[in-house]
Amino acid sequence: MKIYIVFIFLSFIVVTASSQKMDNKKLEKILNNTFDSIQGKEGYWQFKYFDRYFLLITDEKHNRMRIVSPIVEEEKLDEEYYKKCLEANYHTVLDVKYVLSDGLLWSVFIHPLKELSEKQVKDAIVQVYSAAATFGRSYTSTELVFGKSN
After folding, report:
1. How far apart are CA 30 and CA 125, in angstroms?
2. Which one in 40, 56, 107, 131 has a CA-CA gap of 20 to 30 Å to 99?
3. What would the pLDDT profile of 36-74 be if each residue is shown by its tens digit?
């Protein structure tokens, strides 16, 4: 039992020590190295990925961040879209979710800021893009479908 506790403790130390400690400066560097045109200020950036507009918003004080992309105005949605979005939030959009805010449907990735790695940031952008681009068709963020049999 003691060995098991020591193992868990050491695993926690390794994970904590190797965490990315992401912050706004690192995020801005990732964005500038990945995209041609970034607008905004530290903690609030706008950029375009293929044909979609994105916002990346952070709150360092509360260790939170969001990557969002608008999809469609809420008034254009009917009950069937809502049902499919809720099902997709559980089965097919994985780390991303469909949400309503400010009269729009968005594709959103929300995560603690400090714990993010560069790879996770880039993957999140792809997933947000895919969820937005497949809205109304397959409602997916990756090829993986979790927990739903076809």
Report:
1. 12
2. 40
3. 899 999 999 999 999 999 999 999 999 999 999 999 999
Q: In a 3-state reduction of DSSP, which class is residue 85? A: helix
Strands 97-101 and 64-73: unpaired
CATH numbers and ranges of domains, the chain: 20-133 (3.30.1460.10)
Q: Hunting for tokens 């050491």 — which residue is that?
A: 10
Residue with tokens 């790695």: 117
**pLDDT tens, residue by residue, 16-46:** 545 569 999 999 999 999 998 999 999 999 9
Burial of 127 (0-12, 13-18, 19+ CB in 10 A): buried
Arithmetic mean of pLDDT over the chain: 89
Encode burial over 60-71: b for 16+ CB neighbours within 10 A, e otherwise: beeeebbbbbbb
Q: Give me the sign of the Cα torsion angle 20, 70, 107, 103.
A: positive
Q: Quote the CA–CA distance of 112 and 21 in Å, as a whole number.
A: 10
Closest CA to 106 of 34, 43, 57: 57
Structure letter (DSSP) for residue 150: -
